[in-house]
Amino acid sequence: MTRRNIVIYGDVNLNIVDGSAAWLASLAETLTLTDSTVHVVLKATVTTDRLLRRMAANPHVVLHEATPREGQPAMTVDVAVDRLEEVTAQVGATVLITRGRDLSLAVARSDALAPILWAYVTDFAFPFSILPAAQHAQLREIATRACRMFMQTEDSRSYLESIVPEAAGKTLLMTPTVPDDFFIDEPIEADGPLKLIYSGKHHPDWRTLEMLELPARLAEIGVEATLTVLGDKVSAPDKVWVKAMRSGLEQPPESVTWGGGLPREDAVAEISRHDVGLSWRTSRLDNSLEISTKLLEYAAAGAAPLLNRTRAHEALLGVDYPLFIDDDSTDAVVATLAAARGNLAEARATARAAARRYSSSATALRLESYFARSEPDLGAHPARSQPLNVVVAGHDLKFAGELLAMLQARPDVELRIDQWEALSSHDEADSEELLAWADLVICEWAGPNAVWYSQRVAPHQRLLVRLHRFELTSAWIGDIAIDKVDAVITVSEYYQDMVRANTDWPHELIHAIPNGLDMQDLNRPKLEDARFTLGLVGMVPFLKRPDRALDLLEALRARDRRFRLAIRGRKPWEYPWIWRKPEEQEPYRRFFERIGSSDDLLENVTFEPFGADMGNWLRRVGWVLSPSEHESFHLAPAEGMASGALPLFWPRDGVVQIFGDRFLYGSVEEMADAVLAMVDDQDSRRLAVEFAQAAATRFDAPVVDAQWLDLLLAP
Question: From CA 331, how far away is CA 323, in angstroms rounded?
Answer without folding.
Answer: 14
